[in-house]
Fold this sequence. Notes:
Layout: E1 8-14, E2 17-24, H1 31-39, H2 42-49, E3 59-63, H3 72-81, E4 83-87, H4 97-118, H5 126-138, H6 140-151, H7 153-162
Helix pairs in contact: 1-3, 4-6
Amino acid sequence: IAARPRVSMWGGIGAGGAAAVLVRKNKKCSVDEWAAAVDKGLLARAIKALGSVDKRSPWHVLCDNEHFLTSTACQRARDRAKVILWHVPAHSPDLNPVEKYWGWLRKKLRAMDLADALAKRPVLGKMAYKARVRRVIKSAKSQTVAGNVAKGLRGTCKRVVAAKGA
Length: 166
């Protein structure tokens, strides 16, 4: 069985669903790439696409601890876009709802890959695979999963506080 293409995506979820910000061919995103994406309005477009947020900035965004997000260039781009970051503690996947969504998305894509293999369909090329990823993200099921995961953050935080951080 041939390997599926590697697609790296940066995006987010909210109560209104999921939205992609940047789809890349390499795994890591550089400071310059992220700052340019923010300046091009890709982050703002993704935030607005979630539908359940105010269309006007400033926006508060929960983020993971990727190094490039804290760089000076990215901070300046976020300031121009009026985006305020809330950081998740390192090594706390339960407090990062997007990790739960990415897990669901990976499982869904692997199931589709398996169905293709069992049906002896040819392996998708990179462009076709990116289109598949975008289609899955835009699906009603994906939007529901993303919204539910995002809404569950409040309950997760309450459980962590009740357990005194455990």
